[in-house]
Amino acid sequence: MDHKAPIIELFGIPWLTANLSTILMTLISTIVVFVFCVMASRKLQMKPTGLQNFMEWVVDFVKGIIGDTMDWKTGKVFLPLGLTLLVYIFVSNILGVMVMVTVGEEHYLWWKSPTSDPSVTLTLSAMIIILTHFYGVKIKGTKGYLKTYIEPVPFLLPLKIIEEFANTLTLGLRLFGNIFAGEILLGLITKMAIAFGAFSFIGAILPMIAWQGFSLFIGGIQAFIFVMLTMVYMSHKVSSDH
């Protein structure tokens, strides 16, 4: 069966559309992350246990990423950004791994990973690149920030401008490609499971479980890579030495 996206036109304009499943799953990801963070920090203890212990481990993990890319005195302001990106992207990546839900005779795909939509990942990457420019100007000043584009030699300016666009595309498309490919393969395994009745269903159980486990691993790795590259790009704009 072919899955279709529930897309609607906005204001009756054919080229201005919105994917309702992407919007729904983005909201669900946001709610899941919010509830998880509230539960993990609701009753803080000096000797952490349970969710608090896990959240403190995540915070230390993000601190390590920042410390590897820039001076902590400069980078500590980016801890909330890195923590939010890591948790949100990981949750978004794995939502479509567990189950995919289609509705109606047209088989509209409603439950999926929001990061399997390039509009989401490219928006995230564009937001990161814009933030790097903002903090570059804020920390170095306008003059100091603009000097980074003509150092060490002025003729590198065109290449550095191209690099900004390339970073936006690669950061977003890398995440999209990995998650989208995982969902495509899960869909193919599902088709195989229902193609020939009970026999094919039994044969598809192990591949399904194995790929779901691998997809969880990929979801975590891709969240880590996104945050790592975010901090690398940020360090290029705010650090004197990188």
Automatic annotation (TrEMBL):
Gene3D superfamilies: ATP synthase, F0 complex, subunit A. One of its GO terms (cellular component) is proton-transporting ATP synthase complex. It holds the Pfam family ATP-synt_A. It is found in: Cell membrane; Membrane. The keyword tRNA processing does not apply. InterPro entries: ATP_syn_F0_a_bact/chloroplast (IPR045082), ATP_synth_F0_asu (IPR000568), ATP_synth_F0_asu_AS (IPR023011), F0_ATP_A_sf (IPR035908). GO terms for molecular function: proton-transporting ATP synthase activity, rotational mechanism. It is a multi-pass membrane protein. Signal peptide: none annotated. SUPFAM superfamilies: F1F0 ATP synthase subunit A (SSF81336). The keyword Membrane applies. The chain crosses the membrane at residues 20-40, 77-99, 119-137, 184-210, 216-234. Keywords: ATP synthesis, Cell membrane, CF(0), Hydrogen ion transport, Ion transport, Membrane, Transmembrane, Transmembrane helix, Transport. Belongs to the ATPase A chain family. PANTHER family: ATP SYNTHASE SUBUNIT A, CHLOROPLASTIC. NCBIfam families: ATP_synt_6_or_A, PRK05815.1-4. This is ATP synthase subunit a. It comes from Aquibacillus koreensis. The lineage of its organism: Bacteria, Bacillati, Bacillota, Bacilli, Bacillales. The gene is atpB.
